Amino acid sequence: MTNPDVPADVPDENKLIAERRGKLAALRAAGGCAFPNDFRRDVLAADLLAAYGDKSAESLESTPTRVRVGGRMMSKRVMGKASFAHLADRSGRLQLFLQRDTLGAAYEAFKTWDIGDIVGAAGTLFKTKTGELSVRVDELLLLTKSLRPLPDKWHGMADVDMRYRQRYVDLIVNDDSRAVFKTRTRIVRYLRDFLDAMDFQEVETPMMQPIPGGAVARPFKTHHNALDLDMYLRIAPELYLKRLVVGGLERVYEINRSFRNEGLSTRHNPEFTMLELYWAFADYDDLMDLVERMLQGIADTIIGTRTIVYDERSYDLSAAFKRITVADAILANNIGFESGKLRDVEYLRGVCDRLKVSYKPSDGAGKLQIEIFEKTAEHTFMEPTFVYAYPAEVSPLSRANDADPFLTDRFEFFVAGRELANGFSELNDPEDQAARFRAQVARKDAGDDEAMFYDADYIRALEYGMPPTAGLGIGIDRLVMFFTGTSSIRDVLLFPHLRPEAD
Predict the structure, then answer these.
(1) Which of 117, 129, 324, 383 has a Cα-to-Cα distance from 298 of 20 to 30 A?
(2) What are residue 119's phi and psi, to 5 degrees?
């Protein structure tokens, strides 16, 4: 009988799985514990290599060091009375040296074990003739029988889709993949340390919300049975975090999981991680300075250099990051654009028509500007660049610019042609905010699925008074992509969303 979990078009794998299941059955029949849990290791491979890798063979022989190691068997070389194997633990790999005369029955059992099995071993350290630090094993135990063969070591997981679907196998065989996720963890830890040192307080806000707010996006909808209430997975934590600023928590941040009912791409996943922070008595200029220091700090501390290589191009984070307005970016990337007509709706519609950019009849000059900007300019910002002075029409939560209310004190940060951050001086005028919410509701009623709802409780919070505040959102996934040189968001998500596997 074939294994129903294995596709019928891989008979060789079926055979190997059947052989491994047979070995497990024989182990059970022999009366031993098939999956023992009484072995404890006392050291990791990397620690041993760091402490003893430079020791001479004579030094190791003169002062024997006994160790207990455990991990997955990644290679095996049987040579009659003696054999070698490599174990991999979370820190790295270490070689085992096994002898029949020392291990007896355990050695004979070892010869039947398979690559991928998880093994515990104890013995003393020594150096082989080739100078490799190894363990001369005198105690050996099979801890977990692997029932599926690992990919061929020379080709690894050539199927990219399979790497994403079976991340557990990818992490076993792909050192680069493990390194990406270790770097991701270090970047997130750095961000926490950076903000904690500035006296920011980390908080948690609801992931299920009665009103989705804080961004312009289509939400996921669910239903709470006990409350008989439709709810939404948050598209951003913004409005809750700003409620906390009203409450006197003047510096708050959340490293949060957010959800947007959008398409899949190399830059988009329906659920993603953001850093969002709010800083009372600061403005968007302060945020731009903060982003610059933060990215340079990641480069210095995590990567070890301010020259970052991404997609075969080098980026220098040492110099001050460029700053340009949305209007200037449009003019710079659209030859012949009449600068005096940046707010002329009919003219902008004509530009959109020529560019084959779609728009709605209700779109004003600000929305049309952004459509043109996203089509012609956004992808051109390769070096670190802050684009600022976004139209109020597309910035419903941003503070209007004092000198020109058509614009807001808002920026987006780009590098390698991709947006990594969005920040602005917060709108803290409750009457202005209420009017903008009503405008968003009108857009929604006109068919804009991404427009915001009216949040009466948030308006009530603002009516108690929110101090001048600056808010920032950074896409953690895209940030990690940049610093690890990965071109797809799926490479920095342990379990990205994918279409169901074909039957």
Answers:
(1) 324
(2) -130, 145
- Sign of the torsion angle spanned by Cα atoms 156, 157, 160, 164: negative
State the amino acid at position 325 in one-letter form: T
Q: Is-contact 68 106, C-beta < 8 A?
A: no
Q: Which amino acid is at 411?
A: F
Query: CB of 101 within 8 A of CB of 81?
Result: yes
C-alpha pair distances (Å), 260 with each of 212, 213, 271, 273: 10, 11, 6, 11
Residues 6+ apart with CB under 8 A from 85: 73, 75, 76, 77, 95, 96, 98, 110, 119
DSSP state of 321: P
Main-chain dihedrals φ then ψ at residue 289, nearest 5 degrees: -65, -40
Beta bridge partners of 407: 391
Give the separation between CA 325 and CA 328, rounded to whole angstroms: 5
Q: Where are the domains of the chain?
A: 11-150, 173-333+384-491, 336-376
> E-strand spans in 45-91?
66-79, 82-89
Q: Which run of H or of E encompasses 51?
A: helix 45-52
Report pTM: 0.91
Q: Give, as one character, the DSSP assignment of residue 126.
A: E
* C-alpha distances out from residue 28 to 15, 22, 72, 394, Å: 20, 10, 21, 66
CATH topology (fold) of 11-150? OB fold (Dihydrolipoamide Acetyltransferase, E2P) (2.40.50)
Cα(78)–Cα(429) distance, rounded to whole angstroms? Answer: 76
Give the fold, CATH level 3, of 173-333+384-491: BirA Bifunctional Protein; domain 2 (3.30.930)
For residue 252, the cross-strand partners are: 201, 278
Q: Which residues contact 152 (CB under 8 A, 6 or more apart)?
A: none
pLDDT tens, N- to C-terminus, the chain (503 residues): 444 444 444 457 889 999 999 999 999 999 888 899 999 999 999 999 999 999 999 999 999 999 999 999 999 999 989 999 999 999 999 999 999 999 999 999 999 999 999 999 999 999 999 999 999 999 999 999 999 999 876 556 678 888 999 999 999 999 999 999 999 999 999 999 999 999 999 999 999 999 888 887 889 999 999 999 999 999 999 999 999 999 999 999 999 999 999 888 888 899 999 999 999 999 999 999 999 999 999 999 999 999 999 999 999 999 999 999 999 999 999 999 999 999 999 999 999 999 999 999 989 999 999 999 999 999 999 999 999 999 999 998 999 999 999 999 999 999 999 999 999 999 999 999 999 999 989 888 888 877 888 999 999 999 999 999 999 999 999 999 999 999 999 999 999 998 888 76
For tokens 């005096």, the residue is 340
Half-sphere exposure of 29 (CA within 13 A, CB side): 6
